[in-house]
Amino acid sequence: MAKGNRSRRPARRAPFKEVKPLLLVVTEGEVTEPEYLAGFVRWCANPRVHVVVEPGAGVPKTIVESAKRLKQEAEARARGEKDDNLRYDEVWCVFDVDDHPALNDARQIAESQALRLAVSNPCIELWLLLHFQDQPGLKRRDQVVSLLKKHLPSYDKHVDFRDYQALYDQAEQRAKRLEEECNRSGEDGRNPSTGFWKLTLSIRQ
After folding, report:
1. 176, 109 in Cβ contact below 8 A?
2. Which of 67, 117, 166, 167 could staple 26 via S-S, CB 3.0–4.6 A?
3. CA–CA distances in Å: residue 99 to residues 20, 75, 116, 120
């Protein structure tokens, strides 16, 4: 058959690629949380995560109020430019329990504004520690940090995600078990517990 008479198949269309949700993360931590999240986001190859640090805020209610404002500003831009892609699909607030005041107020505001919380009790170092071992029982911040230093002697709040990457799945499973124990006891968010795994899971998906 002559070359010019060959029937030509229509070109195959590239499969539709679903766009990942746009996430905003507002954190009180200036070093540990942003550095961990930066490494985690690179590992997941998810560029649709915006991390905002509220330096010196230190109070959960302040973090939640900032997240509420940023969410509303994004929604206003979306309306003004008639582009729903400018809205955040999820807005997360990251903070430690420690001895912060007005924690219940922060939770109530978050719930009323559909904000998600990644709270660590007593501190973010609990989440880091769960990469290396099972939950340590009720501990103060300084005790959790001391336990973490047994695995990473040079720990000084700075985070190289490569130290944690291969152990992430274990940390997620351990954090889930802690939450299940909290639920069984009817003590949501008790010491020790962390919701940081929910944020990382959302980023990873």
Report:
1. no
2. 67
3. 36, 33, 21, 12
Q: Which domain holds residue 65?
A: 19-153+164-204
Cβ(178)–Cβ(135) below 8 Å: yes
pLDDT < 70 stretches in the chain: 1-18, 56-58, 99, 101
**Domain-located, residue 143:** yes
* Domain membership flag for residue 158: no
* pLDDT at residue 29, as a whole number: 87
Residue corresponding to tokens 């993360």? 25
The three-class DSSP label of residue 195 is coil
Instruction: Read off the pTM.
Output: 0.89
Q: How many residues in total does the chain contain?
A: 205
Determine, yes or no, domain membership for 23: yes
Total tally of structural domains belonging to the chain = 1
Tokens of 92: 């997360």
CB of 63 within 8 A of CB of 118? no
Per residue in 12-45, pLDDT tens?
Answer: 555 545 678 999 999 988 999 999 999 999 999 9
